[in-house]
Amino acid sequence: MKKVVKFGGSSLASAEQFKKAGAIIKADESRVYVIPSAPGKRNSADTKVTDMLLHVYKTASEGKDVTAEIEAIRARYNEIITGLELRNFSLDKDFEEITNRLMTEPERDYTASRGEYLNGKVMAAYLGVAFIDPAEVIFFNDEGKLNRYKTEKTLAARLAECERAVIPGFYGLGKNGKVKTFSRGGSDITGSIVAQAARVDVYENWTDVSGVLVTDPRIVADPEPIKFITYRELRELSYMGASVLHEDAIFPVRQCGIPINLRNTNSPADEGTWIVESTAQKQDHVITGIAGKKDFCTVFVYKAMMNSEIGFCRKVLQAFEENDISVEHVPSGIDTMTVVVHADEFMAKEQQVISAIHRLTSPDSVEIESGLALVAVVGRGMRAVSGTAGKLFSSLAKADINIKMIDQGSSELNIIVGIKNEDFEPAIRAIYNEFITK
Ligand code: ASP
Predict the structure, then answer these.
(1) Is 9 a pocket residue for ligand 1 (Cβ < 6 Å)?
(2) For strand 260-264 and strand 327-329, is the pairing parallel, antiparallel, or unpaired?
(3) CA atoms within a 13 Å half-sphere pointing along the CA-CB vector of 418
(4) pLDDT tens for each residue of 339-366
(5) 307-340 pLDDT, tens per residue?
(6) Euclidean distance between CA atoms 44 and 392, whole angstroms
(7) Prediction pTM value
(8) pLDDT tens digit string along 113-144?
(9) Which one of 25, 141, 153, 158 is separated from 33 by 20 to 30 angstroms, measured CA to CA?
(10) Which ligand 1 atom sits closest to the C-alpha of 8?
(11) Partners of 217 in beta bridges
């Protein structure tokens, strides 16, 4: 049994947190490859090291003095190094190089990536294992996307030489030979790539929560964690706003059937959440999770006898495509068609879209409404149980919430309801109480 263990920023924000991560790694022989993030926040008023680095890059590119900012970053690492009692270990040379580079040829990605690089060096020294620089094993292609083939080949060969190793998250080497980072939160992707290349049995992702929660804890106090969730369910929940893992972290492990186990560094005894391809595990509840987003607009198109006009729907959608607006949902009636779009994408171009709809379809009327929120109730269990939709709608009716739109995917994996923005939080609480608390 082999595992990749990735620790998020808050799990490595201080020496105390580092020690917890170290104890977790040492508690299980199979935790062989470790992916650290950069030190995150030690408290809510703190600043992540990655943000400090991005700021020092800005200072350097404006030609200003970086000494004070570099010293503040160095102090973060020194606090960790001293707290871990790592004698004969210093990052002074690395800081010298980073400062030189900032003063001569500041590069955004190189600078941002140093948070993980330095933390990886500390972690490797602390554990007494090999350090692998991702700039030697993770590659991007011309379009700035991960070069999967070259990365897997090089990384697998390198990992085969190391029984245990630390591989910092978040970056690799760009096609131009310079360090390149993934988008923010990208250490999750590194963990997934390493898990795939080494074909490990489990990808453990350690953060400061005990797994994926059924819903947003800012809306429902203390929601239950989810024990098992499939990749597809997670995708639906993430798409609708739940922030769990970096989206691109799913693909590499999913492709080779490696489950992800989300765990809590501050509560290692908790089982956390298993993200899996498929499972026969019995569920505690019919639904798996509830997520949602506010601020959608609906564009309502009416034309008498529209149903008999072949190509009508395509032409309406073309009006959105021409304006580069992605369409979220398209509920339709006999002579009506509604297009749901994100307000922030749509607002600036609304008049162009309306005139395009007129030009393309000659409708009887087009009406726009804003302030719509979408709530998705997701669960593989819905397929086998009848009455889920009924329960959902009656819970909203009891809370006096008017449903403006309903969309049930044919996969029966989710039901999406459109409600007014101001009903968003009460709706999620009503659904949670109906399906989880009862
Ligand atoms: N340190 C990077 C960030 O703050 C990457 C990561 O933590 O995953 O976005």
Answers:
(1) yes
(2) unpaired
(3) 21
(4) 999 999 999 999 999 999 999 999 999 9
(5) 788 999 999 999 999 999 999 999 888 899 999 9
(6) 36
(7) 0.89
(8) 999 999 999 999 999 999 999 999 999 999 99
(9) 141
(10) 7
(11) none
Q: How far is the CA of 35 from the centre of ligand 1 (A)?
A: 12
Cβ atoms of residues 179 and 173 within 8 Å: yes
435 lines ligand 1 (CB under 6 A): no
Q: Are strands 31-36 and 165-166 parallel, antiparallel or unpaired?
A: parallel
Say if residue 386's pLDDT is above 90: no
Q: Are 24 and 268 in contact (CB under 8 A)?
A: yes
Sign of the torsion angle spanned by Cα atoms 28, 32, 37, 39 = positive
Ligand 1 pocket member 36 (CB < 6 A): no
**Per-residue pLDDT tens over the stretch 252-306:** 999 899 999 999 999 999 999 999 998 888 888 999 999 999 999 999 999 998 8
Tokens 């500390």 belong to residue: 122
pLDDT of 152 strictly over 90: yes
- Which atom of ligand 1 is found nearest the CA of 38? 1
Tell me the C-alpha distance between 223 and 241, whole Å. Answer: 16
Choose one of 55, 170, 207 to mutate for the ligand 1 pocket test, by most ligand atoms within 8 angstroms of C-beta. Answer: 170
Query: In a 10 Å sphere around its CB, with 0-12 CB exposed, 13-18 middle and 19+ buried, how is residue 19 labelled?
Result: middle
User: Phi first, then psi: what are they for 75, rounded to 5°?
Assistant: -60, -35
Residue having the nearest C-alpha atom to atom 6 of ligand 1: 185
Q: Which atom of ligand 1 is nearest to the CA of 51?
A: 4
Comparing CA positions, the residue from 27, 189, 431, 18 lying closest to residue 180 is: 189
Query: What residue owns the CA closest to ligand 1's atom 8?
Result: 185
Q: What is the b/e burial string over 27-65, where b = at least 16 CB atoms within 10 angstroms of the residue's CB?
A: eeeebbbbbbbbbbbbeeeeebbbbbbebbbebbeeeee
CA dihedral 23, 263, 116, 64 (to 10 degrees): -120
